[in-house]
Design brief:
The complex is a heterodimer. Chain A is an alpha+beta fold. Chain A has helices spanning 42-50, 92-102, 107-120, 136-148, 166-183, 194-200, 218-223, 228-233, 272-276, 387-397; strands at 4-13, 16-26, 31-35, 57-62, 65-66, 77-80, 154-158, 186-191, 203-208, 211-216, 240-249, 252-257, 264-267, 282-287, 292-293, 305-317, 322-328, 331-337, 348-354, 359-361, 368-369. In chain A, strands 6-7-8-3-9-10 form a six-stranded mixed β-sheet, sandwiched between helices. Chain B has one domain (70-299): MetI-like (MetI-like fold), CATH 1.10.3720.10. In chain B, 75% of the residues lie in helices and 0% in strands. In chain B, α2 (62-69) crosses α13. The longest helix of chain B has 42 residues, at 5-46. The chains are: A alpha+beta, B mainly alpha. The complex binds adenosine-5'-diphosphate (ADP) and magnesium ion (MG). Chain A: Residues 4-234 form the ABC transporter domain. Chain A: GO terms for molecular function: ABC-type transporter activity; ATP binding; ATP hydrolysis activity.
C-alpha cells in the first residue's frame, strides 16, 4: 500500500476536461515532482490533493484512507504557494503560527514551534517584521516556515521558486533538497522547470494536456523516455531527434541517417527486438548531446561507441563544456565535447556516438519503440533509485562533472 | 526646404508647450474667480456687518460670536453629528456586508451590482422626494399597510420631531450604500486568492478568514469610504430640503440648511457666511490630509 495514491483522478471545469485520469502512487519520504508545460493541470492536481478543488472523478488515498471529501485543514498537509500568500497584516511570527493558533495550540508551545521553524530556516531575526518589510527570498522562507511548523504528513509546493531571481532560485533549490533529506518528509512539488524537477525529485511525473506522460525516477525519465514529448521536454540542451531509416547491413540491424557528406550508419543495440519490426521503415532517433562526443572523451567502458566524420557548423563554448553543432538527418544536432578542444566551424572532425543510449520513437504516434523489458543499464525505470545514485545523475545533468 | 529642421521643430515644440496652457487658461481663470475668489469674499463677509445685503464695514468677530451663541446653530451641529455618525457607520457596515455576500456568490453579481449602484445615480432631490412620499403617513408605507388591512400599523417618524433625523439617515444610507459596496467589492477582488487557500489549509473558518486576514487588508478602502461619506454628510443639503425642509420645526436642521435659511430668508448674510466658512474648514480638515496621503502614495 502506497502512502499517497492518486487513483484515476479526473477534473472537469464545466465542459473543459482538465485532468484526464491521473494515476500516481508514491511512498513515504518520496519527493514527487509534477512537471510539464504551463496549463497542463499541475496546479489543479495539487489543489485537489490539498482539498482546495473538488475531485470530479476518481479517488485520492492518503495512508490508505480515502480523503476525497476531507476538508483541507483536516488532511494533515501544508502548502507553499507561488505568491507565498503571506498574511500582510500579521508579523512573520504571526504568519508562521497562524495554523497552530487556529488549531488551538497553547501559546507557549506555539512560540516554541515558531522558534524551531525559524531556526531551521534562519529567519529568527525576522520574526517581528511584517511581510511587506521582507525581500522575496525572505518571504519564501517564511512561507516554508508556515508549512514546516505544523509538521504535516505531506508537503505541497506550487512553483515556490518561480518568483525568485536565478541565483536565489538555485540556492533555495539546494536548501529545499537538504530540508527533504534532513527531515525525510514526503513532498509533492509542482514546477514547469525540468532542471528543478531533475535536481529535486525522487519521482518525476511528466504531464501534458491533463495526461500523465511518464512516472519514474529522474534517471529513468531522462534515459528511458516513454515518448517524444518526454524526450524533448526533459534535459537541457534537449535531446537530439533525427529521422533515420532502419535497415539491415552485413547481417546487423542498423539505423541509417542522412548527412551532407554521406550517410551515417549506427548499429542498433538497444530495443533490438522491437526495432526488428521496423526494418526498412523510418523512425525518430533520439540521442542526448552527452552521448555524442569527441573520440577522446567517449565513455568506452559502459558505452558502445561508433565514430563518424562530420562537418562542424557551429561551436558554442559554455566554459564547462563545448557544444558542437553539426548537420545530421536534415537537422542541427548538438554534441558535447571536451572544453578547449581545437575545433572551429567548417572543419570536419570525428564524432563518437554512444549507441547504447540511443532511443527510437514511432514518428506517427510519437510513442517509444522499446522491448518489453526495458534493457537500460541501471534498471532505473523498474525501481527506485537510491538517493546517492540520484545525486550523481543530477550532477551529470547539470553538466558539472564533464 | 528653406528652414533648417531644428528651427521648425523648435517652433512646433514651443507651440506644443503653450497650446494646452492657452486652451485651459479661460477655465482656469473662471475657477480662480468663482471658486477661490468667492471663498475669499465669503470669508471677508463673515467678518463684516452684512445683513440682507453685503456691507463691507469691518465688524471683527461679531458674526462669529453670534453664530456660536445661536440656538439653531447648536441644533444644526448636533443633528449633523448624529446624522453623520449614523450615516457613515451604517453605510460602511452595510456596504461591507453586501460586498462580502456578493463576493461569496459571484453568479448574479452583474445584475445585483447595478441594482445597488442605481441609487447613487439619482440626485439627492429625487431620493429625498421619493423617500418623503414613501414615509409620508398619508401617502406611502403607512397608507399601503392600512389598505392591505393592517389598520394598526403606524410609521410617522417623518413628522415626529424626535425621529425625523433618522428618516433622513435611512434615505441617505439607501442612496450611498451601493456605492460603498462597490468600493469594498473592488477591494475584496484585489485580495490574492492563494492567501485565502492558505488560510483554509491553516484551518481558519470563513468568518475568521474575513476578520483576521481580509478585512485588515481593506484599511485603505475604509479610509476612502469614510472620507467620501463624511463630505457627503456635510454637503447633505438637498436631501434634507427635499425630505423635511429642515423640519418639523428645526428637528432636521443641519449646518447647510442653517446657512441657507440665514442667508436667504432671515437676512443674516454675515452669520450665514461664518457658518459656510466653518463648514469649508471642516471639510478641508478632512480632505486635505487624505488627498495629501493619496498623492504621496501614488507618487512613490
Ligand atoms: N477554475 C477554473 N475554471 C476553468 N478552467 C480552469 C480553472 N482553473 C484552471 N483551469 C484550466 O485548467 C488548465 C490547467 O490549469 P493549471 O492546473 O493551473 O495549469 P498549470 O498549473 O499546469 O500551469 C488550464 O487550461 C486552465 O485554464
Ligand atoms: Mg500552476
Amino acid at each position: 500500500m502506497s502512502f499517497l495514491h492518486i487513483h484515476n483522478v479526473h477534473k472537469r471545469f464545466g465542459d473543459t476536461h482538465v485532468l484526464k485520469g491521473i494515476d500516481i502512487a508514491i511512498e513515504k519520504g518520496d519527493f514527487l515532482v509534477l512537471v510539464g508545460p504551463s496549463g497542463c493541470g499541475k496546479s489543479t492536481l495539487l489543489n485537489m490533493i490539498a482539498g482546495l478543488d473538488a475531485i470530479s472523478e476518481g479517488e485520492l488515498l492518503l495512508n490508505g484512507e480515502r480523503i476525497n471529501d476531507v476538508h483541507p485543514s483536516r488532511r494533515d498537509i501544508a502548502m507553499v504557494f507561488q505568491s507565498y500568500a503571506l498574511y500582510p497584516s500579521m508579523t512573520v511570527a504571526g504568519n508562521i503560527g497562524f495554523g497552530l493558533e487556529m488549531r488551538k495550540v497553547a501559546k507557549a508551545r506555539r512560540r516554541e514551534a515558531i522558534q524551531r521553524a525559524a531556526e531551521l530556516l534562519q529567519i529568527e531575526n525576522l520574526l517581528d517584521r511584517k511581510p511587506a518589510q521582507l525581500s522575496g527570498g525572505q518571504r519564501q522562507r517564511v512561507a516554508m516556515g508556515r508549512a514546516l511548523v505544523r509538521e504535516p504528513q505531506l508537503f505541497l509546493f506550487d512553483e515556490p521558486l518561480s518568483n525568485l531571481d536565478a541565483k536565489l532560485r538555485v540556492d533555495m533549490r539546494t536548501e529545499i533538497k537538504q530540508l527533504h533529506q534532513r527531515l525525510g518528509t514526503t513532498i509533492v512539488y509542482v514546477t514547469h522547470d525540468q532542471i528543478e524537477a531533475m535536481t529535486l525529485a525522487t519521482r518525476i511525473a511528466v504531464m501534458r494536456g491533463g495526461e500523465l506522460q511518464q512516472l519514474g525516477t529522474p534517471q529513468a525519465v531522462y534515459d528511458d523516455p516513454n515518448n517524444l514529448f518526454v524526450a524533448g521536454f526533459m534535459g537541457s540542451p534537449s535531446m537530439n531527434l533525427v529521422t533515420a531509416r532502419i535497415t539491415r547491413h552485413e547481417g546487423r540491424l542498423v539505423a541509417r541517417i542522412a548527412a551532407p557528406a554521406g550517410d551515417v550508419t549506427l548499429p542498433i543495440v538497444r530495443d533490438r527486438a522491437a526495432l526488428e519490426a521496423w526494418c526498412d521503415r523510418d523512425v525518430m532517433l533520439g540521442l542526448r548531446p552527452e552521448a555524442i562526443t569527441d573520440p577522446a572523451s567517449a565513455n568506452r567502458e559502459d558505452g558502445d561507441i561508433h565514430e563518424a566524420t562530420l562537418e562542424i557548423a557551429l561551436v558554442e563554448p559554455t566554459g564547462a563544456d563545448l557544444y558542437v553543432v553539426t548537420q545530421l538527418g536534415g537537422r542541427s544536432i548538438n554534441a558535447r565535447m571536451r572544453p578547449g578542444a581545437p575545433l572551429s566551424p567548417g572543419q570536419s572532425t570525428r564524432f563518437a556516438f554512444d549507441v547504447s543510449r540511443m532511443v527510437a520513437f514511432d514518428p506517427e504516434t510519437e510513442a517509444r519503440i522499446r522491448d518489453e523489458v526495458p534493457a537500460t543499464p541501471d534498471e532505473a525505470s523498474t525501481g527506485h533509485a537510491d538517493s546517492t545514485g540520484n545525486a550523481d545523475s543530477t550532477g551529470n545533468i547539470l553538466g558539472q562533472n564533464a | 526646404m528653406s528652414t533648417p529642421p531644428s528651427l521648425r521643430g523648435g517652433a512646433r515644440e514651443r507651440l506644443q508647450h503653450w497650446l494646452p496652457r492657452l486652451v485651459l487658461s479661460p477655465s482656469f481663470v473662471l475657477v480662480l474667480f468663482f471658486v477661490y475668489g468667492f471663498i475669499l469674499w465669503t470669508t471677508y463677509i463673515s467678518f463684516s456687518n452684512s445683513g440682507m445685503l453685503p456691507d463691507y464695514t469691518w465688524a471683527g468677530t461679531r458674526q462669529w460670536s453670534r453664530l456660536w451663541s445661536s440656538w439653531t446653530w447648536g441644533i444644526a451641529l448636533h443633528n449633523i453629528w448624529v446624522f453623520g455618525l449614523l450615516y457613515i457607520v451604517t453605510c460602511t457596515a452595510l456596504g461591507l456586508l453586501l460586498a462580502i455576500l456578493l463576493d461569496q456568490r459571484i453568479r448574479a453579481e452583474g445584475a445585483l451590482r447595478t441594482i445597488y449602484l442605481y441609487p447613487m445615480a439619482l440626485s439627492f432631490i429625487v431620493t429625498g422626494t421619493a423617500w418623503q412620499w414613501f414615509l409620508n403617513p398619508g401617502l406611502g408605507l403607512e397608507r399601503t399597510m392600512h389598505s392591505l388591512g393592517w389598520e394598526s400599523f403606524s410609521f410617522n417618524w417623518l413628522i415626529d420631531a424626535n425621529m425625523a433625523i433618522y428618516t433622513v439617515v435611512i434615505a441617505a444610507v439607501w442612496q450611498a450604500t451601493g456605492f460603498i459596496m462597490a468600493m469594498f467589492l473592488a477591494g475584496l477582488r484585489g485580495i490574492d486568492g492563494e492567501m485565502i487557500k492558505a488560510a483554509q489549509i491553516d484551518g481558519a473558518p470563513t468568518w475568521k478568514i474575513y476578520g483576521r486576514i481580509i478585512i485588515p487588508q481593506l484599511r485603505p478602502v475604509f479610509l476612502s469610504a469614510i472620507v467620501v461619506l463624511a463630505h457627503l454628510a456635510i454637503k447633505s443639503f438637498d436631501l434634507i430640503v427635499a425630505m423635511t425642509g429642515g423640519g418639523p420645526g428645526n428637528a432636521t436642521a443641519v449646518p447647510a440648511t442653517f446657512m441657507y435659511s440665514y442667508a436667504f430668508s432671515r437676512n443674516e448674510m454675515g452669520i450665514a457666511a461664518a457658518s459656510a466658512v466653518f463648514m469649508l474648514a471642516v471639510i478641508a480638515a478632512l480632505i486635505i490630509p487624505y488627498l495629501y496621503s493619496e498623492l504621496r502614495e501614488s507618487r512613490s
